[in-house]
Amino acid sequence: MYFGLSEEQESIQDFVKKFLEDNATVDEIRKIANGEGEEIEKNIFDGILNLGINTLLVPEEYNGLGAGLLHAVAVAQSLGSGVGPIPFVGSYVMAPIAINLGGSEDQKKNYLSRIATNDIRFGVGMSEFVGAREDAGIEFSKNKINGRALFVLDAEKSDFLILANKSGTLFVVKSEDKGVTMNRLTTVDKTRTFHEIILENAEAEILENTSENNEIAKKVIDAGRIILAADTVGASEAMVEKAVSYSKERKQFNRTISSFQAVKHMCAEMAADLEPCYSLVWQAAYSYDTEEISSSRLLACQSKSHVSEVAKVISKKATEVHGGMGFTDLLGLHYWFKRIGLNRQILGAPEIVREEAAELQGFNQ
Length: 365
What we know:
Butyryl-Coa Dehydrogenase, subunit A, domain 1, Butyryl-CoA Dehydrogenase, subunit A, domain 2, Butyryl-CoA Dehydrogenase, subunit A, domain 3, 3 domains, 7-stranded mixed sheet, 9 strands, 55% helix, 14% strand
């Protein structure tokens, strides 16, 4: 029995990957990272949207494709491979899932159809539910929301924000509300944006089905973790390919370094470590759509934690294969290295996610 991506999913993946190869070169990514490529970033975003990624997880009755999470995983792998500088995991995965599962019928009609037509874009902040901080927190009273949310995904140029409090209730807030202040956070990854959101008596709307049910917030986080794992797999794949390609070109002592046994071992180890990660992430996405919550959540935790650890080692070894050149801005290898590093921390670092997996299996009781 073969388990992998379907022809349709592979086609979507190839389209995204080819588009990024043609339109998001290292030089263009460098301009975006340095704050000089706003027009380039817009063109990349518009081009990817033309491929329909905003409609993937919107149900058909709201003008979407009604695809499963495995389709989104295929896209995420390509975005990671090309360090795509566009919003995806928050705007077009977590947000439509949150609204579809947690919203009333009116809320679904209002938001989902407009996501599918690209009239609105969402940012998503789940940090208070994943790991609340003493100096943060969100309070809701009389349709007003106050507090602070950290590491909000895809908030840049968003129209609305979906924010979670400690109990897992999800709120929709207009990004341009006078009570909303966005502070862009400085992170190692310059290909994407993360924000701190300050809320002072901002108007808020509760996603109706989440007021007394934190399972929906958990389901949204599961999806986000799987997509981040897929993005990390794509970035790791690119680093392995770059290391192998470089080793075939770089010469020392009148021979390519790919002929050195130590370099061969490093490349073989990276490829061998990465290979099982594909099926792990694919199985997690498939389970998310088809199996019971307990088993699908365990796979989401396992894929996020395991891929994060494997990718950390791959990013280090791939850089070492490049030698001193691996640390230069000229090759731009650091964009993939940093993307892997930040993916590792977002929506729960490996130690946090492994602890959740242990609880699901009854090991911490």
